[in-house]
Amino acid sequence: MAKYQSINPYTNETFASYDNPTAEQIEDALNLTDALYHKWRHEGPETRTATLHKVADGLREHKKEMAEIMTREMGKMIGESEGEVDLCVSICDYFAEKGPELLKPEPIDTKLGDAYYLKQATGVIMACEPWNFPLYQVIRVFAPNFIVGNPIILKHAHNVPGSAALIAKIIKQAGAPEGSLINMYPSYDQLDQMIADPRIQGVALTGSERGGSSVAENAGKNLKKSTMELGGNDAFIILDDADPEVLKQALSSARTYNDGQVCTSSKRIIVVKSRYEETIHELKKVFSSLKAGDPLDPSTTLPPLNSQGAKDKLTKQLDGALAGGAKILYQYPEIDSDGAFFRPTILTNVDRDNPAFDQEFFGPVATVYEVEDEDAAIALANDSSYGLGSSVISSNIKRAQNVAAQIETGMSVINGTWISSGELPFGGVKKSGYGRELSDLGLMAFVNQHLVISMPTK
Ligand code: NAP
């Protein structure tokens, strides 16, 4: 892991650095969050709803500042950063409105007695988050757990420490009690020690397969419950009856939103042969009309990747794919800048024996596959170690739903691309991880479903 530093990937300027915490600071954070958990055990979720609405208000008020720090730290286009803040406002409001009802005890139908289960907090949760949505990834864990009564210690990615600090500040200013979310900059060793500490009761990680397996291993060794939201190699399936306008609309952002750095970005475009020419024509049009520039400039549509390291990694991966037989169908012209720009690329001929076949390209690289029919599309979609999301484009919704049901993923969008909202569960299967965030399912991730049964008395 690199140091916690804010480096603008457009200018390469390092504008802030942050130290690892001392042992004493870690101890204080564990004590404070654990004490808050015990205090919250005596207070129902409804006592925290007004504060969570205030966090939403705080995000609205700090929208510009929050969006700018995200863009300056990881290069996201400013309009997308602002959209991310709006999404997080709605997620906070959703859990503030729905949380208490969803956390009511659940009656159990049994002849053995009067039974129900309580939905109780379990303790402090360690949240390890990635840089690609610096605010959204944190709010996905913070908002539901705040209502449940589980305090959070946040270990954000090393390249978005300023975003992490601002999130913690907004939550504090909204009136959330000290310890509701504590932001820290631990080393991996310090993180391991914290996860092993008995005051930590759960671990939520969003990130890569590499980071996920390492943190999950440590959580498992210490018998801590964990949720893993990992990478994806999502299929975007185009059936023969796809509506041309719907297809065009979906392709316009499917692989280029957030410069392709989205877990659920449509990385594999799988198209039946009758629609192949039209699809590559549209995709080339989208890729070639991007405008490279400063992500703080609203007219930019092609920002840099999040870091020079990410550019190097993606370049190496692309070279590997080409060495393995892949062909370039389209590549964006050279970009004259020292920023971490990557030339958007469309690949074909990525065969099963190519190392890239089962890899996630975390940037603007689309792989297109031409297939015979619907069955071949489903088979190819499922031929992956990952299973996060998918899209199906068809004008027959019943048919598309039937196709979606056959895809081994956690989420499928019909006639659209990546979507997220407070009430929609988010998560995957296979190497894309386990557990769900958001919705009623995400709310229960770190809840103790505590059975209470009164036996009949004579
Ligand atoms: P990453 O390297 O796994 O990092 C994610 C977080 O885990 C960071 O805070 C990172 O800290 C930490 N981490 C990584 N390795 C660790 C280790 N060995 N021990 C302790 N902590 C560790 O992920 P990334 O490459 O930055 O993020 C992109 C990945 O996230 C992609 O694969 C993407 O698909 C996935 N993602 C998934 C979802 C989802 O919901 N399924 C959403 C967004 C992104 P440092 O930064 O300090 O290394």
Describe the structure.
The chain is of the alpha/beta class and about 450 residues long. It folds into 2 domains: about 5-230 and about 430-455, Aldehyde Dehydrogenase, Chain A, domain 1; about 235-420, 3-Layer(aba) Sandwich (Aldehyde Dehydrogenase, Chain A, domain 2). It has 14 helices and 20 strands. The strands form 5 sheets. The chain has a 7-stranded mixed beta sheet with strand order 12-13-14-11-10-16-17, with helices on both faces. It has a 6-stranded mixed beta sheet with strand order 7-6-5-8-9-19, with helices on both faces. It has a 3-stranded antiparallel beta sheet with strand order 3-4-20, with no helix packed on it. Helix 8 links the parallel strand 8 (about 200-205) and strand 9 (about 225-230). Helix 3 (about 65-75) packs antiparallel against helix 6 (about 160-175). The protein is globular. The N and C termini lie far apart (about 65 Å). The mean pLDDT is about 100. The structure holds NADP nicotinamide-adenine-dinucleotide phosphate (NAP). The site of NADP nicotinamide-adenine-dinucleotide phosphate has 32 residues, from helix 7, strand 8 and helix 8. One of its GO terms (molecular function) is succinate-semialdehyde dehydrogenase (NAD+) activity. This is NAD-dependent aldehyde dehydrogenase. Belongs to the aldehyde dehydrogenase family. It comes from Lactobacillus kimbladii. Keywords: NADP, Oxidoreductase.
